[in-house]
Design brief:
Mean pLDDT: 79
Oligomer: single chain
Radius of gyration: 51 Å
CATH topology of the largest domain: Thrombin, subunit H
Helix content: 25-40%
Distance between the termini: 202 Å
Strand order of the largest sheet: 1-2-5-4-3-12
Strand content: 15-25%
CATH architecture of the largest domain: Beta Barrel
Length: 306
């Protein structure tokens, strides 16, 4: 090969241009210039706006999945929080409902006790308070069990009252409890007095077990009895003190083919919901005992013998 055809220029690997230090100074100066120009003259604002506008769709697309994931996480967290709050609210509502029921029950008991105390002040008969424990097990009898018995001085035949009036009579006494037969029992009878007319009658328990009402029997069809008449104890039976409210006349049925009227009454006492009651001493036990005549003196007997 002829030497003249050879390229005498050095290969690119050995070529040297602007030094790296010079480039550093140049680019540093450009960066400083751009920063000063952007700060003082706001020269790069159009460029930044154009770049931001061009990159906004891409930025939105990139951020959208993360936003969806965040929304889903917040949704499930809020749903769990809502469920927990609902459960807590239900528990609180149940507690408040229970407390409201207890408050209503206590208010009702307080009202009944106040009325019972007022009734006790008007009755001069010795009495003691008692509480109804439960209804008797016999479905064909209207009886309740109270928490007072022989050890408390309760005797058979004692009248029992609630805050409204005559409730029944003690028919069986146990050591610590007693059985009270209500005035609405079919086998129970109580002499009553019509406060409007002064007519005496006898009220019997309605034989229909479901009514819990009273019935005036053997009253003539032309008897002066009207709906709304108040019936009180007459006191002639020697068990109930006179003047205790017993029932109100509900309706009167007069039939042509019968000489007696059918008179239905509603008890004044709460025969189906009594809780606090008063047990009175029977009327015969309140009668004072008559003093026995003293035996004549010995000298009087001697004087008579002479």
């Amino acid at each position: 090969m002829h030497l003249g055809t050879l390229d005498s220029a050095p290969p690119s690997f050995f070529r040297q241009g602007v030094s790296a230090l010079s480039k550093l100074f140049v680019f540093s100066a450009m960066a400083l210039f751009l920063m000063v120009a952007d700060t003082r003259f706001d020269m790069t604002r159009p460029i930044r706006l154009a770049i931001a506008g061009a990159l906004y769709p891409l930025q939105t697309v990139v951020v959208l999945p993360a936003r969806w994931i965040g929304d889903a996480v917040r949704y499930f967290e809020s749903l769990r929080t809502a469920l927990l709050a609902e459960e807590a609210a239900r528990q609180q509502l149940a507690q408040q409902s229970m407390r409201a029921g207890q408050v209503e029950q206590l208010t009702l008991e307080n009202t009944r006790l106040r009325l019972l105390l007022q009734l006790r002040e008007t009755i001069k008969t010795p009495a003691q308070a008692a509480q109804v424990l439960y209804d008797a097990a016999d479905p064909y009898r209207r009886q309740v069990i109270i928490d007072k018995g022989l050890v408390h001085g309760v005797v058979a035949g004692s009248p029992v009252l609630d805050e409204a009036g005559a409730l029944g009579q003690v028919t069986r006494v146990y050591p610590s409890t007693s059985e009270v037969t209500l005035v609405s029992d079919p086998d129970q009878a109580i002499p009553v007095l019509n406060t409007r007319t002064g007519t005496r009658a006898v009220a019997f328990g309605d034989p229909d077990v479901d009514t819990g009402a009273l019935e005036l029997r053997f009253m003539p069809s032309n008897a002066d009895v009207q709906a709304g008449d108040l019936l009180t104890t007459s006191g002639v039976d020697g068990v109930y003190p006179a003047g205790l409210q017993v029932a109100r006349v509900d309706r009167v049925e007069r039939r042509v083919d019968s000489a007696f009227a059918r008179i239905y009454c509603t008890p004044v006492a709460k025969v189906a919901g009594a809780f606090h009651v008063m047990v009175l001493q029977p009327v015969p036990g309140q009668a004072p005992k008559h003093a026995e005549p003293e035996a004549p003196a010995a000298h009087e007997k001697k004087g008579k013998s002479k």
